[in-house]
# Entry
Amino acid sequence: MTMTKLKEKLFSRAALRGIIAIFIFIALWETGARSEQWFGYRFPFLGLVPPPSDVAASWGGLIGDPSYWQSWYMSFLRVFGGFMAAVVIGIPLGLFMAVNKTFYGMAFPSFEVLRPIPPLAWVPASIIFWPTQELSIAFVTFLGAFYTIVINVLGGARSINKQFLQAAQSMGASQWDIFRRIVLPATLPSIVVGSAVGMGITWEVVVAAEMISGGGSSGGGAGGGLGFFIWSSYVGGSYEQIIVGMISIGIAGYMSSELLRQLGGFLTPWLKTR
Amino acid sequence: MPNTATRIQDASEIVVSNVFKSYGAGPFAKEVVKDCSFTIESNKLTVMIGPSGCGKSTLIQLIAGFETPDSGNITMNGEPITGPGKDRLVLFQESALFPWMTTYDNIMYGPRARGEDTKESADLAEFLLSKVGLEAFRDKYPPQLSGGMQRRAELARAMINKPEVMILDEPFRGLDNMSKELMWEYYAGLYEEDRNTNFFVTTDIDEAIFLADRLLIMTNLPTSTREVIEIDIPRPRKIDDIVNNAHANEIKKEVMTLLHEEAMKSFSGGSKAAADFLDAYSKRAG
# Structure
């Protein structure tokens, strides 16, 4: 992106609206949170929330704290590990179910029974089954992305335009070539969408799993990921830090999704031309 | 006859004899092709015309080898057709260009799929690109091409495989009238150059008469051959020749009468497609 383009984007009407809206939101929040102190009357709900200025101050103190960044690192590691496992297992599984009717008949019913079980319902079972707590968190995180990726890949691969396959066949393509150069690229947009949605679920799941399981094998304190960071802040009564943890997860999730969007755009250049 | 030198002499004839095909089973079975026989003669452009929804696409599926007839035979040069193959290339109704490939990669698909990614293939691809006038769109994706360009790219993608028989299923449907007529002249020109065996399916009478050496008129569902007309208008043909040609108009009248009868049959059968056809027919006749 050139500098002028960046400038245009930063100072466009849409960006300006967004910035103004965020400022208004923060101003209202500050007013609400300080209502008792300023007006002698506590606003419902907002009056109980720590004001953004205190949150910012608390955040400022945490920026230099390695254990805060350790939380980021732990959560990212789990999200990345679980997500990658879901991609590596989920994409081939979805593709294979789509191209092989026998396997589809065998695998799909069990898949559909397991799919509605929320990943978090797996937490107790996975704590029992997996040798370390770290592995149980990673497993639950994996499940969050796995079903979504499989179902998207399967749907994408099964809805390929029949004419693409027939055209390739009539040009003398082998089954392998059809899979590699027709089925795979035709499914790629669904793979990208499935991964993006799966990534979102992964963040939801990892935070909850960290809270429930008590932060993982790396011990207590802030080493247990952003979910545990929020939980221990709650237990320790540091309400500003709860908000810091929440916003951190928001930023982390946004960064992951954006990364995936960029990668997806790079993998499917033809979609930009529509 | 121009370009006699490049004319391909190899016989490649497809014979369809007593073919039956129905879909579904039991009381829900629908007979689509019934005792259908015709010949796609070697080195001729055979056009098949019939009311829409009459089973023409099914016949293409059978000839291409994507499906097998319930009974009857389809042979190519005496050999029964057992499956799809690059000797019989199909151009589909809607564009089947692969959206994830550029124009060039689309054209090169066939050679690459067969492990013939050679300099020779690449040269031929470049030659065909310029022949269909798409050099400037070499690295564009299909959605960036206009409808007519997509059809030309698809012609190039088919021609690079040097098929013995080219099968075209209403390839110019959906184009606006102007591009359609340009495509007729363009496609006829390509055909006149090498005179390979071509099988062209359409519902458009003007298109059929402009292009055909032989015209197969099909009956309503279940389909079979109603009439075969030899179109002896000299080539190369231009749109104006056909419009102002008394002989061509006579043929047109004859074809319209036959198709009208077939359409009436399906109209009485309550087919929406036939009603549409009749509507279009009355506009054209009036």
Q: What stands out?
A: Chain A touches chain B at residues 161, 163-164, 166-174, 177, 181-182, 185-186, 188, 268-270, 273-274 (CB under 8 Å). Chain A has one domain: 52-268.
